[in-house]
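Protocol step 4 of 6: record predicted structures for both targets in the notebook before any analysis. Target 1:
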Amino acid sequence: SNPLLPLPVLQAAHCQMIKDLSACLLGQNLRVDCRYENKTDNPLTYEFSITKDNRKHVIHSTISVSENIYRSRANVTMHKNLVCLYLQSFTTSDEGIYMCELKATNDYTGNQIKNITVIKDKLEKCAGFSLLIQNTSWLLLLLLSLPLLQAVDFVSL
């Protein structure tokens, strides 16, 4: 073997970076978008949590165990460069600091974490086609009608 070949350890330095964390209201539900830049093909694990009254509550996670009262109301969808949390029946008691934490398998540069303060009265309504993503049958209809919608910029999905 050639001793000059570089070992593939450099990849550890190129972890995924959380670029943006945003929240919006989708009907009665809260949606939290955690956008990231993917630097590796390794599987991504995530954790959404909320801190209120100085206590952290895990809402939905592949890293640790989430709390029942949240898990039953939450689901997460993963798309290219986007991890999306949906929390049903969002009320003022769900206000707090939401945290998105991402970790790529075999990535030793540590987890990526970003926070956002969510207050119901200050939330915008979710915009655009992206709300259709939440419902797969809508997405199917959307794909079937793609020829009609070529004017729409789908890169934003």
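Target 2:
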Amino acid sequence: EDPSLERHFKGHRDAVTSVDFSLNKKQLASGSMDSCLMIWSMKPQMRAYRFVGHKDAVMCVQFSPSGHLVASGSRDKTVRLWIPSVKGESTVFKAHTATVRSVHFSSDGQSLVTASDDKTVKVWMVHRQKFLFSLSQHINWVRCARFSPDGRLIVSASDDKTVKLWDKTSRECIHSFCEHGGFVNHVDFHPSGTCIAAAGTDNTVKVWDVRMNRLLQHYQGNAVVNSLSFHPSGNYLVTASNDSTLKILDLLEGRLLYTLHGHQGPATCVAFSRTGDLFASGGSDEQVMVWKTNFDAADYGDVPKTQKSSTSVEETHHALSEMDCGVHLKKTKTQDPGRNHVQQEEEISLANTLEHIMGQLDVLTQTVSILEQRLTLTEDKLKECLENQQKIIQNKTS
């Protein structure tokens, strides 16, 4: 069965720049050149929230792993962290000295990486919105930056035509991939963390192995590729291009599977849901579309949470089979006889409880942060009042 259009959201008043699903797929966030962030409900008849706060175009949005926060970056040089609820409260911090093109949470939700036209990549602590460090070797705008699934590496893509791989601990650039013939619009890690894919204005998508730093695959399109997203199984990649199409690539076969037409004008952004049964796209036509994946349903009924890389992979294998990461290993539904259902249910409920606690922590942090901001405002006002009083006193005495 081919992928099919499931939902269609209209509400933005300018080009959509970015889309992302929450963990539970109940919400979809989108950013737009209209300076707004929208949170759409996947439940029919539920109204969307429009969040206003940025003073200029919103370039990027992403849900935190727990789904209790949404980060957005803007042309107004700031990053905002929102609570995706009716109130839409947010904290704001000046992140860069130019447009913020990209925001991305680490998989533990503790760190945020941002990329900007000021040519730097910055890493922040989410809970205090505290700046940690800058990575500055790019010599042009940085369009995109992502953490690896294990949080040890950062990859960044720039208009200097390079993709750089950084070690988060040493803060060193470990490798620069320079094979792009144009600006690099988007980059992301394969779910296994062993490969990266990058999309460029030279109409290509390139897949590299980050262990051996070599090109594994190269897809030549006929239009600028703006965005890409890996399916959680690691077997597929979806791309969004200026020719208004979305394309689904089969990475195991190394070929184009589907070309989807839905947008009028350039397709600007695309993202799979965390389970992979849906993907969303946005375009210059101000529309957000949600698609049902429909392929390979048997494959990702339960995607392994962390994909263990298959033990010894013959390095001499055909380049593709090296996208090891147990990509080929279909998960068989064998029930371990030693484990009863009760134990599994207990584990599930524990996981849910932990997730709930993490969510509450996010909200608390956010609240504290909002309070700190209000306190600062109050202190500023107080200072102003005291200064004014002193002026009045001085005027009277003089």
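Step 5 preliminary note on target 2. Helices lie at 341-397. The two ends are 86 Å apart (CA to CA).
Proceed to step 6 after PI sign-off.
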